[in-house]
């Protein structure tokens, strides 16, 4: 269990949760990954943790590259348990490390864990942390996906460690998007956005604007779930998709969602559907008795009309 180099001296040290079928109500038929990253600079820096039950695997990957006693910073971009579940284990192994997070992140860590003895460094948007050859710039992105969420930008490598943003619940042997069918990854990114971030479109739009105003030059986006977007074409594609989804624009689709006990409501749904069809409006129909709501949410992203 080794780390995988994604840029010179920057390693993926995450885990793949192949058997995950459900993520707080969101069906995840392709599993998920919890991506941590290790930056081997003068001040060795670990970015994000993993779910507690996969801690051993992540710890082994880190140990393939360094001893925990040499880690100087542990960046916590987001305190939800899929990324901070094993941070207490990390801090036991690296008690000398400083925990770098924002005000809301510190409060959430203190609420969830016994943080006695942890040294914190609190950052906000625009703050820069020098770790040797590299400068890490932080951008808080509240509600993407929790109030504490933030992203870490590695300036010299044009690398954005985006945590939940731009992720996919998609476990695969590949680390990079380029090694998977692009449409499949993008569809999983769309499903992820629809199910995790859809209610926070305004905040997503704000985050994209903030990244623009900070002048972040990005050629790789490494999220905390799924594959890594690499190169101008892929980075533009996923940022463009987020800008579109966050804008509230849609494809003018009608989405009919219903349930039925003896078929009466199904008949109604069928009648409504034919009205849209006859009017030449693209329409999709989901019966909740047989469809998972996660699947329905993806169609909502394209919907102009919801009949219920
Ligand atoms: Fe999250
Ligand atoms: Fe997450």
What structural class do you assign from the helix and strand content? alpha/beta
Nearest-integer average pLDDT: 95
Enumerate the spans where pLDDT stays under 50 for 5 or more consecutive residues. Answer: none
- How would the global form be characterised? elongated
Cofactors and ligands? fe (ii) ion
How much beta, percentage-wise?
25-35%
Count of separate DSSP helical elements: 9
Main β-sheet, spatial strand arrangement: 1-2-7-8-9-10-11
The arrangement of helices and strands along the chain is: EEEEEEEEHEHHEHEEEEEHHEEHEHEHE
Give keywords.
alpha/beta; 9 helices; 32% helix; 25% strand; elongated
Question: If you had to describe this structure to a student in words, what would you say it looks like?
Answer:
- The protein has 308 residues and is an alpha/beta fold.
- 32% of the residues lie in helices and 25% in strands.
- The protein has helices at residues 55-63, 81-84, 87-93, 103-112, 182-197, 201-213, 232-247, 264-278, 293-300, and strands at 4-7, 10-12, 15-17, 22-23, 26-27, 32-34, 37-39, 44-47, 71-75, 98-101, 119-122, 128-130, 135-140, 150-154, 159-163, 220-223, 229-230, 253-258, 283-287, 303-307.
- It has a seven-stranded mixed sheet. A six-stranded mixed sheet has the order 12-13-14-15-16-17, covered by helices on one side.
- Bound molecules: fe (ii) ion (2 copies).
- One fe (ii) ion (FE2) binds next to loops.
């Amino acid at each position: 269990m080794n780390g995988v180099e994604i840029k010179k001296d920057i390693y993926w040290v995450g885990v793949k949760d192949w058997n995950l079928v459900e993520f707080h109500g969101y069906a995840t038929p392709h599993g998920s990954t919890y991506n941590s990253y290790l930056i081997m600079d003068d001040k060795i820096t670990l970015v994000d943790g993993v779910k507690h039950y996969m801690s051993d695997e992540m710890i082994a990957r880190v140990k393939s590259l360094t001893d925990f006693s040499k880690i100087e910073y542990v960046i916590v971009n987001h305190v939800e348990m899929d990324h901070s579940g094993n941070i207490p284990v990390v801090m036991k192994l690296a008690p000398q490390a400083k925990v770098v997070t924002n005000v809301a992140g510190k409060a959430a860590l203190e609420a969830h864990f016994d943080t006695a003895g942890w040294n914190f460094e609190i950052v906000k948007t625009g703050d820069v942390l020098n770790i040797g050859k590299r400068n890490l710039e932080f951008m808080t992105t509240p509600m993407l996906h929790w109030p504490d969420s933030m992203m870490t930008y590695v300036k010299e490598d044009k690398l954005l460690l985006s945590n939940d943003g731009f992720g996919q619940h998609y476990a695969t042997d590949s680390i990079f998007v380029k090694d998977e069918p692009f449409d499949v990854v993008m569809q999983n990114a769309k499903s992820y956005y629809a199910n995790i971030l859809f209610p926070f479109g305004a905040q997503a739009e704000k985050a994209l604007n903030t990244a623009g105003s900070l002048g972040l030059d990005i050629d790789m986006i490494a999220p905390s779930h799924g594959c890594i977007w690499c190169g101008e074409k892929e980075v533009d594609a996923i940022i463009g998709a987020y800008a579109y989804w966050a804008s509230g624009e849609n494809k003018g689709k009608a989405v009919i969602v219903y349930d039925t006990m003896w078929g009466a409501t199904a008949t109604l749904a069928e009648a409504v559907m034919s009205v849209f069809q006859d009017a030449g409006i693209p329409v999709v129909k989901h019966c909740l008795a047989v469809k998972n709501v996660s699947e329905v949410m993806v169609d909502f992203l394209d919907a102009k009309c919801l009949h219920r």
